[in-house]
């Protein structure tokens, strides 16, 4: 997945972002980022980091 794809504004990205925020447990996202060595800042902006900070100490092996 290219990070530049996320910076484009359009209905597809809006839908993808809403789905990610509404349906995906942030612990899954944090664990995936840790496992794949992807900086969480590439996925969550500052306001989402503040909102989901409680999930940041999840183990990389977390499974829902």
TrEMBL record:
<comment type="similarity">
    <text>Belongs to the type IB topoisomerase family.</text>
</comment>
<dbReference type="InterPro" id="IPR014727">
    <property type="entry name" value="TopoI_cat_a/b-sub_euk"/>
</dbReference>
<protein>
    <submittedName>
        <fullName>DNA topoisomerase 1</fullName>
    </submittedName>
</protein>
<dbReference type="GO" id="GO:0003917">
    <property type="term" value="F:DNA topoisomerase type I (single strand cut, ATP-independent) activity"/>
</dbReference>
<keyword id="KW-0799">Topoisomerase</keyword>
<feature type="active site" description="O-(3'-phospho-DNA)-tyrosine intermediate">
    <location>
        <position position="23"/>
    </location>
</feature>
<dbReference type="Pfam" id="PF14370">
    <property type="entry name" value="Topo_C_assoc"/>
</dbReference>
<dbReference type="GO" id="GO:0006260">
    <property type="term" value="P:DNA replication"/>
</dbReference>
<keyword id="KW-0238">DNA-binding</keyword>
<feature type="domain" description="Topoisomerase I C-terminal">
    <location>
        <begin position="7"/>
        <end position="63"/>
    </location>
</feature>
<dbReference type="GO" id="GO:0003677">
    <property type="term" value="F:DNA binding"/>
</dbReference>
<dbReference type="InterPro" id="IPR011010">
    <property type="entry name" value="DNA_brk_join_enz"/>
</dbReference>
<dbReference type="InterPro" id="IPR025834">
    <property type="entry name" value="TopoI_C_dom"/>
</dbReference>
<keyword id="KW-0413">Isomerase</keyword>
<dbReference type="GO" id="GO:0006265">
    <property type="term" value="P:DNA topological change"/>
</dbReference>
<dbReference type="GO" id="GO:0005694">
    <property type="term" value="C:chromosome"/>
</dbReference>
<dbReference type="InterPro" id="IPR051062">
    <property type="entry name" value="Topoisomerase_IB"/>
</dbReference>
<dbReference type="GO" id="GO:0005730">
    <property type="term" value="C:nucleolus"/>
</dbReference>
<dbReference type="GO" id="GO:0007059">
    <property type="term" value="P:chromosome segregation"/>
</dbReference>
